Amino acid sequence: MTIKKENPVRVRFAPSPTGRTHLGSGRTALYNYLLARRTGGQFILRIEDTDQKRFVEGAEEELMQGLRWLGLDWDEGPDVGGDYGPYRQTERRELYAKYAKELIESGHAYYCFCTAKDDGHEEAKGKRQQHRDICPSREVVSAEASQKIASGTAHVIRYKMPREGKITVEDAIRGEITVENATLDDYILVKSDGLPVYHLAVVVDDYLMKITHAIRTSEWLPTFPLHGHIYAAFGWKQPTWIHPSIFLKPDGKGKMSKRDSEALMEAGKPIFLSDFAKLGYLPEAVVNWAALIGWSYDDKTEEFTLDELIEKFSVEKLSPSPAALNFTKLDHFNGVYIRAISPEDLAKRIKPFFVDAGYEIDDEKKLLRVAKLLQVRLKNLTESPAMGGFFFKDEVFPEAETLIGKKMDAESALALAREIEILVANLPDFSMDTANQPFRDLAKKMDTKVGNVFGFLRDSLTAQKVSPPIFETMEIIGREKVMARIERGVELLDGLL
Ligand code: GLU
């Protein structure tokens, strides 16, 4: 199914604020967003908060932050408003009541007085019976029902599923799905607290909000036929439904459970949107990676910015089969985007990691120079302080032994270090052009490997095993600190004798 670029869609992302925002939700939002932006349509954020028992305070804020972090902005939503609001389902309660009543009046739903505990549902499940087979309320005439309601009897509203026949619903990437009505039950539409369940609310809202296309996870496939029934009962046209695959665990064996997500998190692999940033991932990388879990362009091209995705996204390339999460790929994309952004941008993004690690960053120019040096090496923003923290320290503390080069002893290392100190003091500047040859000549003169010369410099200047290229490093550290650190290196070696 091709959705033409010139036909604007109205799509929605409709999360429930029941916990932290999962990558899977981020991906669903992304696909909807791409479709909206590609066709010049609208992307709507609707908060499905009717399940008050599972409501989590702060989840909505986290969700919005997560979407914004990914770069997905919405045209209508609880915070920005729009012509089809309110966009929070608990604020639309009366609407659902009205439509539920319509279904009752048209004979498609009924008041059910079996209370949650004694509705025999559990028992019926055990006996493989449907609720409708044991429910005494199903055939209660409306006058009697109204009386019970008036006298305050607790009740829910259930869909009156036909016992015979079949229903066919259609998914744009899966084709037609036909099920026997006998396999469907009398689902609850409105709970005893008067709030609708998802099945009713989603139909009413998608209709009233004029949603033309709905991308949601395949976890909704089992109740998709029920939604088809409700649409038919109202006589409404359905949106085009698209159910992309769910995620599998990284090993490909089975669906991700909550516990799997937690285990991944413990292993340093993010799965909730807000953790990606904390763990040093760029939103550009997450967008690119998430888009490809279940969608491909041409089986070759892998790198897509958000704008490129908008340009290239197509529903027919969404996969109906489940896809395993591949974190190695995420790391790869992260490296790609770290190198793709401007050094100025990178400097901004690494700054909080230095600050969190306890560094005071007041020299923005220096930060930019450091960013330029780190840019070619970083795989993850969290590595920045470990790689470049020494630039912002007053002093570094190498171990004396590490200052001794290969096949050298403390004495020869000290002799070399003293020569290095003199050479550096006499260098007019630390550029590669100026400094490289003199160091090489020195190695020859001292009859040692050039690696030992640079090894001493690196250790004494950075106290790290690996560092950015030494001359650029020296230029950023500056002559005064370079000399002080070399001097300390000399002293440390002296102390070994
Ligand atoms: N509130 C549902 C969820 O969070 C939305 C599903 C849909 O997009 O229709 O899964």
CATH superfamily of the largest domain: HUPs
Overall mean confidence score, pLDDT? 93
Give the names of the bound compounds: glutamic acid
Can you count the helices? Answer: 21
What number of structural domains do the residues give? 4
- How much β-strand is present in the residues? 5-15%
Poorly predicted runs of 5 or more residues:
none
The chain-level structural class is mainly alpha
Strand numbers in spatial order across the main sheet? 3-4-7
Give a quick precis of the structure.
The chain is mostly helical and 497 residues long. It contains 21 helices and eleven strands. The strands form five sheets. The protein has a three-stranded antiparallel beta sheet.
Supply the key terms.
497 residues, mainly alpha, Rossmann fold, Glutamyl-tRNA Synthetase, domain 2, Helicase, Ruva Protein, domain 3, 3-stranded antiparallel sheet, two-stranded parallel sheet, 11 strands, binds glutamic acid
